[in-house]
Structures are given as C-alpha cells and as structure tokens.
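User: Hi! I have a protein structure encoded as tokens and I'd like to know what sequence might fold into it. I'm fairly new to this, so please keep things simple.
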C-alpha cells in the first residue's frame, strides 16, 4: 500500500489530507480562516499567508496523527501550485518541497481546479462521458470529461464567478463574509419568486456572466428603501437567479455533448438550492455532488488528483516547479492527453 499526502493552501484554507492507494481518505484536516477574514469582508492575501505559515505544521501533524501514519511512510506528496494567491501557494509548496527533500518522498505539483474536479471521484464511481461544473469563489467553469485524465474546458465566466456573485450580493444585503453560506441559509425562509433578478443570456455560448446581477440587486435595494422587511425573499430570489443561470448552461451543455453524468464541485456546490434544482432539472443523468467538506478547498481533492495522474504516469516527480496565480481563460489548456 502506498500513501499520498495532499497539501492545499491556495486561498484561505490550510488543509492536509492522507489517502491510501485504494483512494481511501485516512485523514483530511482543514483549518479555515473564515473567522479571521470576515472582519475584512474578504480574503486579505498577506494575512492569509501569515496564517498558513502559522497553522501548516499543526495541520500536517494532526493529519498524520488521524491517519495513524508517520511522515516516513508518505510515498507521494501532492501540493497545489496554482491557480491561487501567490503568497499562500508558496507556504504549501515550500512545506511540501522541504518535506520531500528531508523525507526523500516523490513530490507532484497539482492544479487547484483539477483538484476540484477530482473531488467528485473521492466518494463516487463516475460514469463517462461527463460534464463537470467547477463553481467556486474564483471560477465558474464547465469541463467535458472523456475520462478522469482526459478533459477540457468548455466555458467559464466572462466576469465575476458565481461564488463572487454570492459574496458581493451578501455584502450589499449586509450579511457577513463569505456570503454564499449566509444567502443559502436565509433563502430557505424566503420566496424565490419574489423578484425576478435578470442574469445575462449569452445565446448559444456556455459562458457565464454575473457582474450585471449584483448591479441589478444594488438598483433594487436603492429603489426600495424598505427592503430589509423582505430580506429573506430578496436573498432567495437573488440565489435563484444564480442557480438558474448555472443550471441553464448545464442543460445547454447536455445538448452539445452526450453525457452520462453531471458533476458539481467547488464551494458553491454546497448550495442547497443548486442541489435541489439539479435534481429537479437533470434527473436523466447521474448527478454527483461531493460532501461539503470536499466541495470547499481541501487537501483530499489534491491527493486524489495526484493519484489519478500518478497511476497513469501523467506527471513526474520533481522539485523544480513554480507557483502561479491565475489562468486567463484564453491561455487555459487543460487537455491532458
Ligand atoms: O471552492 P471554495 O472553497 O474556494 C475557492 O476556490 O474559491 O469556494 C468558496 C466560495 C465562496 O464564494 C463562498 O461564498 C461559496 O464558495 N460558498 C457558497 C456556499 N458555501 C460556500 N455559495 C453558495 N452556497 C453555499 N452554501
Ligand atoms: Zn477552490
């Protein structure tokens, strides 16, 4: 049996997981900095990297302890090297490289977005071909998957990501950061049909655009001074607009590609209305939502992505790799074969 460690520090979660070669998650320890950053209304990179540095050794030790493994037993170290916040990625990557040097383990750089796709494989057997929607604070991407190592990007957002739309909307409504979870919570008490917030329709394209939506929420709040009386209804309608746009593009994608499964991943995949709406509208397909702990950033998805690539020789162990911040859509090439 071989043991794989996944290290994730691309944003505000410090996470270390250990998986065995049968893909069992032996541990997945995540320290979330949400409570630290909520005072600032968003993630502050300098504060995030400082906290990764302070927490990473503790998280790593805890992960080894729960998995009942010693560091010497770890054969493969998989670490997120981008996209993400540079100063944050550097903490995870420096830790991983140091461990690999001392321990003489193999080390592999892992793309964070590929990690989110891989999160769908932790608890499920996937039937191919499939579509995967990665929907997080920074990305809203649709991928077509021929198999676990053959996939490519089919669409993304032209402006804000869906998670960003949740967070910005929550800010306008005076809810805390991160907003997605707050909007999800109060939406359950509201009427989703209260107001029709418009989301851009981009014709035949599978791309998304959410920047107009928060503007329409702002105009609505400016025009209706007494809006707080209908807070839950407004949040619910706003959430519905985001969910409708996501599901609409997935339905469009199913018309372009013949698929068996539809996978959802990333923090917004925790959203209860998105889960409900997927069941209502996509019942012809196998629908996969990872558990919430694997939707938001976590080390297990990074180790899982490592396993997928390593077993098919798609990546070589090397200490010589950089960190990178964001990929502009036109430069993305995630076709892996
Ligand atoms: O995947 P993730 O943890 O980090 C990134 O890679 O961005 O996603 C974070 C995003 C935030 O925008 C947060 O508001 C959103 O996921 N989120 C949610 C929910 N839980 C987290 N959005 C809607 N409903 C939720 N329940
Ligand atoms: Zn993420």
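Assistant: Happy to help. Inverse folding works backwards from shape to sequence: for each of the 337 positions I chose a residue that suits the local structure. Here it is:
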């Amino acid at each position: 049996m071989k043991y794989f460690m996944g290290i994730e520090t691309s944003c505000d979660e410090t996470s270390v997981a250990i998986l065995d070669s049968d893909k069992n998650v032996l541990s997945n320890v995540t320290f979330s900095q949400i409570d630290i950053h909520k005072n600032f209304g968003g993630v502050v990179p300098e504060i995030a990297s400082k906290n990764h540095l302070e927490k990473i050794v503790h998280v790593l030790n805890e992960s080894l302890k729960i998995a009942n493994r010693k560091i010497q037993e770890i054969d493969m170290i998989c670490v997120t090297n981008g996209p993400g916040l540079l100063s944050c990625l550097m903490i995870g990557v420096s830790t991983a490289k140091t461990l690999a040097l001392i321990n003489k383990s193999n080390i592999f750089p892992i793309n964070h977005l590929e990690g989110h796709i891989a999160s769908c494989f932790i608890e499920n057997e996937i039937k191919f071909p499939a579509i995967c929607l990665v929907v997080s604070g920074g990305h809203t991407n649709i991928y077509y998957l021929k198999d676990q190592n053959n996939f490519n990007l089919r669409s993304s957002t032209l402006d804000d990501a869906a998670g960003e739309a949740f967070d910005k909307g929550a800010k306008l409504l005076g809810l805390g950061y991160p907003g997605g979870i707050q909007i999800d919570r109060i939406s359950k008490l509201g009427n989703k049909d209260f107001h029709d917030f418009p989301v851009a329709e981009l014709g035949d394209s599978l791309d998304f655009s959410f920047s107009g939506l928060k503007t329409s929420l702002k105009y609505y709040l400016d025009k209706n001074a007494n809006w707080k009386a209908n807070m839950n209804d407004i949040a619910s309608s706003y959430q519905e607009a985001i969910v409708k746009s996501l599901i609409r593009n997935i339905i469009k994608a199913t018309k372009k590609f013949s698929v068996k499964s539809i996978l959802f991943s990333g923090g917004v995949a925790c959203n209860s209305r998105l889960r409900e709406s997927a069941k209502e509208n996509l019942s012809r397909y196998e629908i996969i939502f990872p558990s919430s702990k694997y939707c938001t950033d976590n080390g297990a998805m990074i180790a899982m992505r490592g396993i997928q690539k390593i077993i098919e020789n798609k990546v070589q162990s090397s200490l010589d790799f950089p960190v990178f911040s964001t990929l502009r859509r036109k430069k993305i090439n995630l076709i892996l074969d």
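A useful reference point when you look it over: Residues 328-337 have pLDDT under 50 and may be disordered. Feel free to ask if any position seems puzzling.
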